[in-house]
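Quick entry between incubations.
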Amino acid sequence: GAVVSQHPSWVICKSGTSVKIECRSLDFQATTMFWYRQFPKQSLMLMATSNEGSKATYEQGVEKDKFLINHASLTLSTLTVTSAHPEDSSFYICSARNRNYGYTFGSGTRLTVV
Amino acid sequence: RKEVEQDPGPFNVPEGATVAFNCTYSNSASQSFFWYRQDCRKEPKLLMSVYSSGNEDGRFTAQLNRASQYISLLIRDSKLSDSATYLCVVNMGGGGNKLTFGTGTQLKVEL
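Done. Structure below.
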């Protein structure tokens, strides 16, 4: 089956620093990857959609300069939270879409900014 | 109105009970529908897709009513391990194949 590997599982960082989260599709090529954020007791909210080799499409209200997305290959997408602040603390999850496997989710990254 | 709406619960049921969750969606042009299960602090995992004809997978039955824009999930003979949050998820079409998630319904199965 399709597997998406997401790292790190959790990270604690200081305010003002940047954090990079990686998602890799291990046994399939992901034509599209989605990045979500989930606050406690809330639903997953789509942040952006990235297609390999092109710029990401951000949802309304998501700052593209703060949440940098790079989808340089068909198996790797990265999300960088720049100049992180405590309000960015959340659970970030990626999802890869492939025509054969549908949607596969990474295991998520719990970010805590102190 | 939320795009995908669910009762957050929690629903506390005894082991062996039958429990049903409902979900409504706002976009009549929505194309595909799913139920996902999410355990605490974990990623969502696909439980089942939902089809207009209704579909069953073991103890789980899902139904879709396009006219009412309503989706349901029925769990029979609930187990302790069924305790989780159940997410109603809709692909609303319109390009991009984006999924829209409901807030989830929390189920607690007790002895």
